[in-house]
Amino acid sequence: MKERRSVLKSAIACISAFAVLSTALVSTGIMSNPFKVSAEDSKPIVLEPEENALLGAATHFHIFAEQVTVNTHIHGNIATNMLIPNAKNFGVENDKLNGYESISYFKDFQGTLNEKTIATSTIFGSGFTVDSHNNGNGVIINSPSGGIGTFNDSSYLGTIYYEDSTVPFIDIEAELDKLTALSNEIAEQPDSSGIVITGDHNTLTIDCSAVADEVNYITLEAGVDFTSMTVLHIKGLDIENGGALYVNIDVSGVVDENDKATFEKEWIVYDTDGENIGNGEHELGKAMPVIYNFVKDGKAFEGTIFTPGCYQIGTFFGPSANFDLNSGVNGSIIGRDVIINMETHRYDVQVGNATIGGGETPTDPTDPDEKYTVTFNPKGGSAVNPITDVEEGSTITAPTAPTKPGYDFVGWYKDDNLTNEWNFETDTVSGDTTLYAKWEESTTDPTDPDPTEKEKPTLDVDNITVKDGDSIVIDGTALTATVTK
């Protein structure tokens, strides 16, 4: 599966550039800063998704869309340009109490909000106005579209922020465009070997037991595979060891004249122990190893996904699609326009140990983007600066040779025993490396490190006047002059 995983590197790389979302936000100071927020009040706040987060800026959100209409309770947080809150409450009320902090982002909203409606900490758009409320013990938020939010310090579990006027906290439309590119990449992947598909008139089963700890791909034709079944079962994924499944669902055979695809079957995911991995509220951070990538003719679907009932387990990934959901989705929901009519629950996407909401992706030692450091051990000589940010497979330039009194520098060696010399013309770096200096005792007189044969003095007898018996000194030797006629 490494080959398939590497095919997605170009798409994932552009998304994981969201390693740091740094924007100037201002806290109203209702409570202390929550979540992965590192700042004092009225200072820039930094939100830091994991470096290898598969879904980039959508990493920390249950629903990520340009517009979200909430007509029922949801168990999760939201990022959207426009929120239409018709529900009594949403968010994860026990997040803060369970020590798992989440945050929502509303560029704008209509209607009303209050501390009983939304249970997460919230970032509001720059066009909002904020007024004091309840004798300074709360705030009133007024949105550009006429929405009003009332929050009291005594009963609100989160913190209120609003973004700086010059930079949006998240450019949601641009992020969905990037995710659409990822959707297209996923759609191109061939089916994984080792997956067993069986079915009858009731159940379609995708069995991943033989490839339980791998990242797998399968494409289902909605007009063929979904017409007769009443339930989809996905089983055998070893979630703890990175097992995951991308299900490309090609809607070409089921879209109507309005470009709407309807799915009314239950989709259930089981782990290696045969346990249903999720349906209902839970403490956040629970992994979801299945992503349903909605496509049409091999490209990201741009129509509407409609679910009239039942419930589905897995992340709904349609960054160019709209969702009209009347079923309980257990996972993340990524789309353009999302309407929620039945309770949904957040589960954090996990693909190959890259977990949205937490976790790390192991470093691939063949990744060409990996950088290394070459360190020089002078072994008693003068210090030599290390060479940093060396790409794998690259050669390096020899540094200025160190010096050591009484010794001549011979060269740099790969081992401390000084048996294998480093060739700066041909040897390449494959990891963090230490090179060792080799010295030979110098043949130079330490009191005269640069000896040259001194010119012997000559005696110009035409210019010396001596008398018989006079002493003269030539080259340190005392002589007695004898005058002869």
Written account of the structure:
With 485 residues, the protein is mainly beta. The chain is 7% helix and 35% strand. It contains four helices and 37 strands. The strands form eight sheets. It has a 16-stranded mixed sheet that branches. The protein has a four-stranded mixed sheet with strand order 7-11-10-9, with no helix packed on it. A hairpin with a 3-residue loop joins β13 (196-199) and β14 (203-207). α2 packs antiparallel against α3. It is extended. The model is unreliable at 1-51, 94-100, 353-368 and 451-457 (pLDDT under 50).
Tally of contiguous helical segments: 4
Beta fraction: 35-45%
Distance between the termini: 108 Å
Low-confidence stretches: 1-51, 94-100, 353-368, 451-457
Biggest sheet, open or closed, and with what strands and sense? 16 strands, mixed
Helix percentage range:
under 10%
Would you count the extended β strands for me? 37
Structural class by sheet pairing and helices: mainly beta
Oligomeric grouping of the chains: single chain
Average of per-residue pLDDT values: 74
Quick tags:
mainly beta; extended; 485 residues; 16-stranded mixed β-sheet; four-stranded mixed β-sheet; disordered N terminus; 35% strand
Quickly describe the structure.
The protein has 485 residues and is mostly beta strands.
Q: What's the topology here?
A:
Elements: H1 2-7, H2 9-15, E1 21-23, E2 25-27, E3 45-47, E4 63-70, E5 78-85, E6 103-106, E7 112-114, E8 121-124, E9 129-133, E10 138-142, E11 148-152, E12 160-163, H3 172-187, E13 196-199, E14 203-207, E15 215-221, H4 222-225, E16 231-237, E17 244-250, E18 260-262, E19 266-271, E20 287-288, E21 290-296, E22 299-300, E23 304-307, E24 311-313, E25 315-317, E26 322-325, E27 328-330, E28 333-334, E29 337-340, E30 348-351, E31 354-355, E32 371-377, E33 387-391, E34 407-413, E35 433-441, E36 471-474, E37 477-480
Parallel strand pairs: 4-5, 4-28, 4-29, 5-6, 6-8, 7-11, 8-12, 14-16, 15-17, 16-19, 17-21, 18-23, 20-30, 21-25, 23-26, 24-27, 25-28, 26-29, 32-35
Antiparallel strand pairs: 1-3, 2-12, 9-10, 10-11, 13-14, 21-22, 30-31, 32-33, 34-35, 36-37
Helix pairs in contact: 2-3
